[in-house]
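User: quick one - fold this with zinc ion bound?
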Amino acid sequence: MYIFDSVQKIKREFVSLKKNEVSLYVCGPTVYDDAHLGHAKSALVFDLLSRVLRAEGYNVKYARNITDIDDKIIKKATELGVSIKEITDKYTEAYHADMAHLGIQRPDIEPKATESLDAMFLMIQNLLNRGHAYQISNGDIYFDTASDAEYLSISHRVQNEDEKQNRVLNSNEKKNSADFALWKTIADGDISFDSPFGKGRPGWHLECSAMIEKHLTCKDTKYAIDIHGGGADLLFPHHENEAAQTRCSTNHEIAAYWMHNGFVNIDGEKMSKSLGNSFFIKDALKVYDGEVLRFYLLSTHYRSNFNFNEEDLLASKKRLDKLYRLKKRLFGLEVHSDMQTAFKTKLLDALKDDLNVSTALSVIDEMISLVNETLDSAGKHKELKREAMIDMAYIEELLGFGLENPFEYFQTGVDKETKVKIKELIEERNEAKKAKDFATSDSLRDQILSYGITIMDTPQGTFWERV
Ligand SMILES: [Zn+2]
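Assistant: Sure. Structure tokens for the protein plus zinc ion:
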């Protein structure tokens, strides 16, 4: 497997720290508002990565945190006059629901900042003991960036002259303008947490380093974890600071590989027709099917910036429709074992190359054409049809789409009431057919078709879809 390491800026062969095991950490959401398409993209990319690693035979330990301590949360709770837990519970639940609609599997561990304070205190104490942190007169504790010779080795950022001079000009007791808070003192009465350093709240960067150390770290290795992921916007300062804290408080670097996904932009003019300019997943889900959104958001390589526009989304839907049309043709047929190896290997190989989704999708397109051609020429020969079978379950497991019943998939857009009515009519028709009352069954059939749908009688039952 090859991964583009966004710190070394090259594609590297992936070698895990421990045989057959992979530890993966991804920065999760700060739960003070609904999740937007950027959150979806990041969660989808690393959902795909963990699926590919598992298909490769690795035992994956995937952690994605919930930041439930943050100034934005505290601000919102204060404004609304509610507890921070009320805010964070609400938006954590909403986040989970949105991700589930996109077919994103829950990570193995989902640590919360509020439940990891012990690990943060330990890390701050280690940094103070080792001379990498200092406390100012109001009690705030800062990381001393000048004490870390490797600082900026993650983002390769170059500090400009102003930043360097700030060291002297700084009036707020910070030694260097780049120094960042590990602990912020908050006076009694405000929303704060008890700590050995007084009441306050931890710095955001600290939360991730401490959670990695608590939940994922490999103790005797050069790196704490195998892969650290997140959005490209987190590279600086967040990931730089995470790396500095881990490097200076423990005996290892934080991650052997770094992966960053691109941004999601919205094509404003076109999107305004249906979505306004909302980035929220919940709004997109009102207009588009979750599976179509998943397919669409995954169809661009994870490192590229993603320009969300309706035309591309509809083109994606057509591509997914083709897969479902094939699934429908294959419905009820058994899969022959061992016949899928070539296709499976090709698909997995594409994804093992730094999640090359466009190659993977063309492998699927090719497979769809090939199977359709074989089915066309097989005619009614069941044995030949079986030869053409393809294991849809593999695509479902690896890419997380194609999971629905193919008939129900093509019912999208029909309202609930109509669906109930159609189901009733189909049942009545089946009864009439059983009783050999063909006049009634024919008339019911006409009634059903008047809804603008087609029906298919199969050995597994009667199914319908939109014309
Ligand atoms: Zn983080």
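One thing worth noting: The longest helix spans residues 357-378.
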